[in-house]
Amino acid sequence: MIRSFTQGHMGRGWVNDLRDIVCAQILVGDFCVFAGDHRDDEAINLVKNIPSGHKTPWMLMIPQNDGWGGLIETVYGDIVKKISRYAIKKEKDCFDEEKLRRFIGELPDEFQLTQIDEALYHQTFLHDFSQDFCSQFSSAEDYLSRGLGYCAVHRGEIVSGASSYTVYDEGIEIEIATKSGYRRQGLAAACAAKLILHCLERGLYPSWDAANKASVALAEKLGYHFDFEYDAYEVDIKKIFERKV
What we know:
- This protein is an alpha+beta fold.
- It has helices at about 1-5, 45-50, 65-75, 95-105, 120-125, 140-145, 185-200, 215-220, 235-245, and strands spanning about 10-15, 25-30, 30-35, 60-65, 80-90, 110-115, 150-155, 155-170, 170-180, 205, 210, 225-235.
- It has a 7-stranded mixed β-sheet with strand order 1-2-3-4-12-5-11. A 5-stranded mixed β-sheet has the order 6-7-8-9-10, sandwiched between helices.
- The longest helix is centred in the last third of the chain and has 15 residues, at about 185-200.
- It starts with a helix and ends with a helix.
């Protein structure tokens, strides 16, 4: 997602001083990354920066190191919740394409595996679980020209999917989710397998970052390998503004 910003595709960024950059904040979607020298006088102001127009009521702050993590905790106190996330190795040769095709073939007959088109693009915003499939694109036209995704559809309704949360020159960052009541049926595996194969055909890397251990397990099932656990902070934006008032 950092590449999504630095390559000019998505997101916004701030630095301490354009003439002498020593620390920075990058915001792409709900992910806010801090890097550089956390001891710089402007670092704390970057941590305090909640940009106007942020779409969702929360933000996921990711510190480069413990120093940035300490700043986040100092600024926001009990407003933040420290959590663990799980980085997945970026390996271009880790996929068994035949195995991925088997996951697609195991999709139960009552579900249709469908590439996200304009109609499905609009439908993703009707359900909480699927809103981030296309949320970082400005319009259906924007998504169809730059994004990529597949959904499992049941009786005309999206019940699972895997899509490009963000895009960068070399690939996409995958967003994957399944509606409650439809899990453990192989839907997410089928959608992700189809998306990964499509990316490989186009010479794109399907990057995966896991929010929980279940996501790690699904990634490993598809051929990825776990890399390391890291800290992140869930910040309640609404509480921040309530405190300022």
